[in-house]
Specification:
By secondary structure, the chain is an alpha+beta fold. The strands form three sheets. It has a four-stranded mixed sheet. The protein has a four-stranded antiparallel sheet with strand order 2-3-7-6, with helices on one face. The chain has a two-stranded antiparallel sheet with strand order 9-10. A hairpin with a 2-residue loop joins strand 9 and strand 10. Helix 5 runs antiparallel to helix 7 and helix 9 packs antiparallel against helix 10. The two termini are 39 Å apart. The relative contact order is 0.12.
Length: 385
């Protein structure tokens, strides 16, 4: 479909596609096999100003919106979800500063982020706090002009590689979720270390580590917003970022579809191309339809978010939920269309299937997305009475 993209939007999409085709596809299997962090590709994205797409011009960015950002995410995801996760997680870590940071914090951090000089990560998840974000146990105690952080964050994307971390910690245990606050913590701060690199099913080029805080002292000015705003910071950040996860779903699904359709044209059975078999045509038809439906929803929600809508939780959850469920189904079907070949590492779809699973889990499982949507529907129906 033609989504009537502007000239600038087309430029961003086409450049991302060029980087995906020329820089990512030739090395994606090796990055996956070796679990190698894609620093060279990140440098290419930085040189192309991709880290500054959604950052205002006064802080060194391009001044575009989340929609332009997801156009890039989709194209990178078509080639490798591990690489696109590294890139997208940088925005996830940046949004707390962009949305709630002081002017001093924005001036200090955003120019380096926009230029790609410093990578960012978001620290929310813990052993007992994932879907239940209110279960955070990492603490931040104010002592004079410093906060002292203690605790451990789990499964943090870009962990160990990023230089800037936005972290959610408890400043008042008696207030539950309202006792959480958000902070900026820089790599190299005494008392801030990292756990081992996790060995994962998919997105193996992406780095996933624990963040460990042991009497880690940070300046009082490193708090994002005010004490007690941490839960709001986290939720609003996820509202902004979930369309990015949806775009990842669209991208990896499109990549798997392209590979399967191309294979079906070349592979012959019963004296004809596999794509001529009606059963295969129906699978491909369903895959193409699901991808286009997911793309339309993700694009619409991204534009809605960019318009400054006050409450986008339901819509962003819908975009994440639908597009990532589509990604899982399409990648599984792509393997099926390709048969035994699809199961082999010689072809890219087995990796895409492994990679796609995480999209249904991180940034809120798809069961949690259904909860978010359901709660919003309860409120909406109550208003109509």
């Amino acid at each position: 479909m033609d989504y009537f993209l502007t000239e600038e939007q087309l430029m961003i999409r086409d450049l991302a596609r060029e980087i995906a085709d020329e820089k990512i596809m030739p090395v994606r299997a090796e990055l996956d096999e070796k679990e190698e962090f894609p620093w060279e590709i990140m440098k290419t994205l930085a040189q192309s100003d991709f880290f500054g797409i959604y950052i205002p011009e006064e802080y060194g960015g391009m001044g575009k919106g989340g929609f332009e950002f997801i156009l890039a995410v989709e194209e990178l995801s078509r080639a490798c979800l591990g690489v696109s996760t590294t890139y997208a997680a940088d925005a996830l870590g940046t949004y707390p500063i962009l949305l709630f940071g002081s002017e001093e914090q924005k001036k200090k951090y955003l120019p380096d982020i926009a230029s790609g000089k410093r990578l960012v990560a978001f620290g929310l998840t813990e052993a007992n706090a994932g879907s239940d974000a209110a279960g955070v146990q990492t603490t931040a105690k104010l002592e004079g002009n410093e906060y002292v952080l203690n605790g451990t964050k789990q499964w943090i994307t870009n962990g160990g590689e990023a230089e800037i971390y936005t972290v959610i910690a408890i400043t008042d245990k008696n207030k539950g979720a309202r006792g959480a606050s958000a902070f900026v913590v820089e790599k190299g701060t005494p008392g801030f270390t990292f756990g081992k690199k996790e060995n994962k099913l998919g997105i193996r080029a992406s780095s996933t580590r624990e963040l460990v805080f042991e009497n880690c002292r940070i300046p009082k000015d490193n708090i994002i917003g005010k004490e007690g705003m941490g839960f709001i910071v986290a939720m609003k950040t996820l509202d902004k970022s979930r369309t990015g996860v949806g775009a990842q779903g669209v991208g990896v699904a499109q990549g798997a579809f392209d590979a399967a359709a191309g294979f079906a044209r070349e592979r012959h059975q019963f004296g004809q191309p596999v794509i001529s078999i009606q059963a295969v045509q129906h699978m491909l038809a369903d895959m193409a339809t699901q991808i286009e439906a997911a793309r339309s929803l993700v694009y619409s929600v991204a534009k809605y978010v960019d318009c400054g809508a006050k409450d986008v939780s339901k819509e962003s959850a819908m975009a994440k939920l639908f597009a990532t469920d589509v990604a899982m189904k399409v990648t599984v079907d792509a393997v099926q269309v390709m048969g035994g070949s699809g199961y082999m590492r010689e072809y890219p779809v087995e990796k895409m299937m492994r990679d796609a699973k995480i999209l249904q889990i991180y940034e809120g499982t798809n069961q949690i997305q259904r909860n978010v949507i359901g709660q919003a529907l309860i409120k909406e129906t109550a208003k109509k009475k």
